[in-house]
User: Which sequence fits this backbone?
């Protein structure tokens, strides 16, 4: 699952000592979330061409090669470091495939978001517009998507990012804080605010229905 | 949980994290639970947790096909003793190579597992253990495992090399050949794990035997020519000899070796399927007696080789990987499709393999997987709770006994299945032997009991939501079968909603969302506009037929059920804005449904209610552009309805209301949706409006010389302004149904590319004359073009733009040219189809654009028709596919009919009368089919009559008088048989008169003048004298 356990600390120690098998274990442990991130941030244009698995494999090799780099970084946790490498691999893949067509991202570099990928806005909007797959709904989905896209773009970038990290990359609060380089407390408050904002937005979208409600 | 100091964090956030953790863990935490645990935070919880839950659930969208194994780009040349020859295939579990084992100089297959697959030490041990067990299996129908190995971190195992093809490929091929099965590409592909080469001719022969229809009743094998030792024939490779072949002969007696033998050409498809089952089941049983379960039986793991022998591959390996696969993402769905339900509870026994084999056989029969769901959770629920439709529903030729066997093998409760693989094999052999099978059908009582037992007490709404989502996904494509199921589920939701009334807003919101999707799937068009079709007869008169899109009975029932619900929701529960808005949307839906059901008055009322609610909303939020836009959209819908009801003044008023709301708002930087809705208003104004003249008025201007009125004659330049009065009739069917047009000025021999085309002014009402369609469409285009640039992702904007271009009347304008505009339309739609391949509406639009282009293209000299013809063909091919795929949605079939009709007209023009005749006959057969499917819809009969008329023309041109007479008399009978209100409708009367006249002409031509006179007299008596031709200007 996504919970770091005590075992993680030991793993990190081994990693800093240069233990490659620790890297493999780490990778295996966080694999699913990393896969999700790649999936989430993959540009739609590359959907048919780039397999998240491939990206992960390459990232693994890249990470192996940069183990020393991690050893120098005392402040960064292993997972966040790994995530960064996967992200960079993904960006490289985008550049490779899309070449000069790489879109200009919003100014999100400061939030750890690497330029060149599909913007978080777009990614969120795509996810939230839902998975309506019936024939006539595809058109409706596009509309909803577009409306969502506009509304989400109006959110504060950091709020957007928090939602994406918490839900679509499944990061914990402390990991989010680390990625965004803010305090844990701040991350916690940010998240709830972001959810509130999102709720407001969704309320305005005609036709958007929340997927699920519990009694 | 985590080691983070909780005191630092927002208390609500910590709770949210817990909530999410449980959701991800597969639990169903309820909001109520949290509100009762933490009353102080209750308001926030109620407010925000549903949103959080939404995000989590929406996450599990359909994974794109991916999840295939890779070696991270590493190229493999050797693995120890094995020299890699080539890659054979890859699937979710690994990559398979053909290799040569150099020490033994034999060919083998090697499966290499991806690095991550066995990261945990446990998995590795398991893998080795299972490989050892699999290596101990020796059976004719089991691919032998020779060994396992590891090479630089890559784990692999070595097995027998089989020249064959996986059953998944076979199914795919069968499905493609079978027009009623869904294209195999649609089903979530179980990652193929194939050891395959190009099929040999023998293999092709075997595959060809599948294509034979089972109606030849050929179940007995052609046993006489087959040697008895067949079953033991070795594979072509020098593989190990089968050491022990356990095959229980049971009660099959001496026929056992034959029945269990390999496939041969000449077998019927059912026999083939049964034989595959027999071979596989025997192999499974053998393995079970050796203590090994397979755990991953699926079509991809069953190979057929060129000798017709079935091979089961991947024994045991799956089990080792299972723990991993269930938690991984991406490549999961393929394996999940065939997993027995009890395995989710951790119980596996030989009957689980029986189940999986049963499902594989099911798929061979039905040519589609038993379960289909957009994502993992939904799929799991389906497996646990649902049951697939019986194969006979897809193909009525499936032998009953065979189906019974398959259904028993795939029973959800293991104790209802065959107790062993051998029992399954035995029953299959009985079937092949023409003996009664032991599996029996459940009686209705039993079925009801089972249904109750399995129908879960719906724990929360989630299950229903999921189930409904499943129903929605498969509804539109599978057709009436699923609509029955969807109906059941809709009723369930209704019951649930009644029970949970007090939950009010949230419940109805949820159910509304889900039902919206069902509705979207059931209702073919988003804009439920009553359509019309116009055709011109031989004398140049035009006849218009308003038609409502016909629905199958099941779809209609479903919609009616939905209506009940929408009506309920349509009564706003609270006074607050959100509730009001929701209710208004529900009323809008209800109105659309009423329109589709032909209940135009009720539709009118529902729109009225919706508008009233919006009026209230707007008065509370006068600034809200979004509200104004929504309101305007409803006005447009209502206006379209009014067009369908043929009350142009009122339609005009509603269009104008929409415009009044939107025009002030639609600046260049206004919201896209606002501009779009305004464009929409213009579009319908420009297309539906002008032909609202009522078919009762006879057309003025006939063309006595020409039997058909193609092409339109030379035009004269027109200013772009209010058009002068003209005697030509405008013909704009919605969605670009382009009929013939009687041109105002016949000039034989002169062919101009464009015709002068002006709308007739309806009686000027208080709203003034109807605006010029070209002006309207131009405005719409002006609005949409920047939208197209700004929001290329919005399919609907582009679609409307395309439609504007397509439906522009051909007219010489300074600002645009007809050829350019239709070209634009085609471009736009082609792009849409390529961007949204799953969306049939766009394909229909494209087809119509093709047809319009072809129909209104350059004059039909032979060469020019040669140019137009491919467009017709393209249109036809698209529409045929759509009509076959969505039998419930009649507009696809009628679209096809229309295109055939148009093409036939043009063909007649260039003198290709025989081809025209073929096309018309095809159209007629389609219409007859539609009439049978939708017997309550009179419009099909009217259409049929029109086609008959055109067909008569074709016959006449070929001097086939008898045929011409036959179809015309038939048409007259059909029309006379219409129920009373329809029969006396103006356009129907007109059609009858015209048919009568055509008949009289035919009679005269064939030399039966007296008969002809009689018919003319009758016609004059019933319908009055024919209209006099007006002198042309």
Assistant:
């Amino acid at each position: 699952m996504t919970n770091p356990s005590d075992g993680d600390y030991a793993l990190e120690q081994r990693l800093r000592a240069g233990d490659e098998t620790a890297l493999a274990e780490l990778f295996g442990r966080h694999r699913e979330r990393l896969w999700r991130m790649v999936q989430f941030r993959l540009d739609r244009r590359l959907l048919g061409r780039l397999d998240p698995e491939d990206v992960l494999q390459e990232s693994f090799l890249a990470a192996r090669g940069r183990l020393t780099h991690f050893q120098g970084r005392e402040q960064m946790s292993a997972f966040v470091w790994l995530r960064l490498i996967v992200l960079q691999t993904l960006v490289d893949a985008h550049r490779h495939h899309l070449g000069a067509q790489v879109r200009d991202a919003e100014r999100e570099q400061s939030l750890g978001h690497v330029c060149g990928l599909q913007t978080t806005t777009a990614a969120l909007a795509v996810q939230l517009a839902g998975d309506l797959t019936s024939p006539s709904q595809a058109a409706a989905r596009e509309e909803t998507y577009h409306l969502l896209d506009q509304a989400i773009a109006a959110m504060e970038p950091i709020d957007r990012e928090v939602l994406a990290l918490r839900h679509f990359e499944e990061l914990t609060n402390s990991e989010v804080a680390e990625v965004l380089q803010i305090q844990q407390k701040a991350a916690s408050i940010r998240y709830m605010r972001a959810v509130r904002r999102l709720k407001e937005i969704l309320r305005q979208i005609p036709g958007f229905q929340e997927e699920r409600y519990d009694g | 949980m985590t080691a983070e100091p909780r005191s630092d964090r927002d208390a609500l956030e910590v709770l949210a994290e817990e909530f999410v953790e449980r959701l991800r863990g597969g639990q169903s935490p309820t909001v109520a639970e949290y509100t009762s645990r933490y009353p102080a935070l209750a308001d926030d919880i109620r407010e925000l947790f549903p949103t959080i839950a939404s995000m989590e659930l929406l996450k599990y969208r359909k994974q794109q096909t991916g999840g295939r194994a890779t070696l991270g780009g590493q190229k493999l040349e050797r693995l120890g003793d094995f020299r890699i020859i080539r890659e054979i295939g890859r699937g979710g579990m690994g990559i398979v190579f053909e290799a040569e084992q150099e020490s033994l100089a034999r060919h083998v297959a090697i499966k290499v597992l991806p690095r991550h697959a066995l990261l945990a030490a446990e998995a590795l041990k398991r893998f080795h253990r299972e490989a050892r067990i699999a290596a101990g299996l020796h059976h004719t129908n089991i691919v032998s495992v020779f060994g396992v190995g590891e090479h630089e971190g890559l784990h692999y195992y070595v097995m027998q090399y089989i020249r064959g093809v996986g059953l998944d490929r076979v199914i795919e091929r069968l499905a493609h050949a079978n027009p009623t099965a869904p294209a195999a590409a649609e089903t979530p592909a179980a990652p193929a794990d194939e050891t395959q080469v190009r099929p040999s001719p023998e293999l092709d022969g075997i595959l060809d035997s599948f294509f034979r229809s089972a109606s030849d009743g050929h179940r007995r094998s052609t046993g006489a020519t087959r040697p008895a030792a067949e079953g033991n024939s070795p594979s072509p490779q020098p593989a190990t000899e089968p050491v022990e072949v356990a095959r229980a002969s049971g009660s099959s007696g001496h026929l056992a070796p034959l029945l269990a033998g390999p496939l041969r050409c000449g077998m019927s498809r059912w026999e083939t399927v049964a034989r595959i089952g027999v071979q596989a089941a025997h192999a499974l049983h053998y393995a079970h007696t050796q203590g090994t379960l397979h755990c991953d039986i699926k079509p991809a793991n069953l190979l057929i080789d060129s000798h017709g022998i079935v091979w089961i591959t991947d024994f045991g390996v799956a089990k080792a990987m299972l723990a991993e696969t269930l938690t991984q993402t991406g490549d999961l769905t393929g394996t999940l499709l065939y997993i027995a339900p009890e395995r989710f509870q951790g119980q596996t026994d030989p009957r689980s393999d029986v189940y999986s084999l049963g499902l594989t056989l099911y798929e061979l029969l039905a040519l589609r997987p038993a379960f289909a769901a957009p994502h993992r959770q939904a799929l799991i629920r389906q497996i646990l709770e649902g049951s697939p439709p019986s194969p006979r529903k897809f193909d009525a030729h499936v032998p009953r006994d065979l189906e019974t066997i398959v259904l028993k093998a795939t029973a959800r409760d293991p104790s209802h299945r065959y107790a062993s693989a051998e029992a399954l094999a035995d029953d299959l052999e009985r079937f092949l032997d023409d003996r009664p099978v032991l599996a029996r059908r459940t009686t209705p009582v039993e079925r009801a009991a089972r249904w109750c037992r399995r129908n879960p007490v719906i724990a929360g709404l989630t299950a229903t939501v999921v189930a409904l989502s499943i129903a929605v996904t498969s509804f539109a494509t599978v057709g009436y079968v699923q609509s029955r199921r969807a109906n059941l589920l809709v009723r369930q939701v209704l019951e649930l909603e009644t029970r949970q009334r007090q939950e009010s807003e949230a419940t109805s919101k949820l159910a509304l969302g889900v039902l919206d999707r069902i509705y979207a799937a059931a209702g073919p068009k988003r804009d439920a506009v009553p359509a019309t079709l116009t055709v011109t007869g031989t004398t140049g008169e035009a006849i218009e037929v308003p038609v409502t899109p016909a629905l199958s009975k099941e779809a209609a029932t479903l919609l009616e059920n939905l209506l009940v619900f929408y009506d309920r929701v349509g009564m706003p529960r609270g006074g607050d804005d959100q509730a009001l808005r929701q209710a208004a949307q529900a009323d809008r839906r209800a109105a659309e449904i009423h329109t589709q059901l032909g209940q135009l008055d009720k539709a009118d009322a529902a729109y009225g209610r919706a508008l009233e609610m919006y009026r209230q909303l707007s008065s509370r939020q006068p600034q809200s552009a979004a509200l104004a836009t929504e309101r305007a959209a409803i006005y447009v819908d209502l206006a379209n309805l009014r067009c369908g009801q043929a009350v142009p003044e009122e339609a005009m008023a509603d269009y104008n209301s929409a415009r009044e709301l939107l025009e002030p708002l639609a600046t260049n930087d206004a919201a896209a949706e606002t501009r779009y809705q305004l464009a929409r208003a213009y579009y319908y104004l420009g297309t539906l409006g002008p032909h609202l003249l009522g078919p009762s008025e006879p057309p003025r201007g006939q063309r006595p010389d020409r039997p058909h009125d193609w092409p339109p004659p030379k035009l004269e330049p027109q200013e772009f302004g209010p058009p002068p009065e003209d005697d030509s009739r405008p013909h704009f069917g919605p969605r670009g149904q382009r009929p013939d047009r009687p041109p105002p000025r016949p000039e034989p021999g002169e062919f101009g590319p464009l015709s002068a085309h002006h709308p007739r002014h309806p009686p000027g009402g208080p709203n003034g004359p109807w605006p010029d369609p070209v002006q309207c469409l131009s405005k719409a285009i002006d609005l949409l073009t920047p939208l197209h640039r700004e929001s290329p992702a919005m399919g609907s904007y582009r679609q409307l733009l395309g439609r504007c271009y397509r439906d522009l009347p051909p007219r010489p304008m300074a600002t645009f040219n007809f050829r350019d505009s239709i070209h634009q339309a085609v471009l736009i739609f082609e792009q849409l189809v390529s961007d949204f391949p799953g969306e049939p509406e766009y394909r229909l639009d494209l087809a119509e654009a093709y047809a319009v282009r072809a129909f209104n293209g350059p004059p039909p000299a032979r060469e020019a028709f040669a140019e137009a013809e491919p467009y017709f063909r393209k249109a036809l091919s698209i529409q045929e596919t759509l009509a076959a795929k969505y039998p419930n949605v009649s507009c696809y079939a009628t679209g096809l009919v229309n295109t055939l009709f148009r093409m036939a007209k043009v063909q007649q023009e260039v003198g290709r009368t025989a081809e025209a005749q073929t096309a018309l006959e095809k159209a007629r057969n389609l219409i007859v089919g539609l009439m049978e499917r939708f017997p309550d819809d009179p419009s099909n009969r009217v259409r049929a009559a029109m086609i008959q008329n055109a067909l008569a023309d074709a016959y006449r041109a070929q001097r086939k008088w008898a045929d011409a007479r036959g179809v015309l008399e038939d048409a007259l009978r059909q029309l006379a048989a219409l129920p009373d209100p329809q029969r006396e409708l103006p356009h129907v009367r007109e059609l009858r008169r015209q048919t009568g006249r055509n008949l009289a002409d035919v009679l005269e031509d064939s030399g039966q003048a007296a008969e002809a006179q009689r018919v003319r007299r009758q016609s004059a008596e019933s319908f009055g004298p024919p209209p006099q031709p007006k002198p042309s200007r």
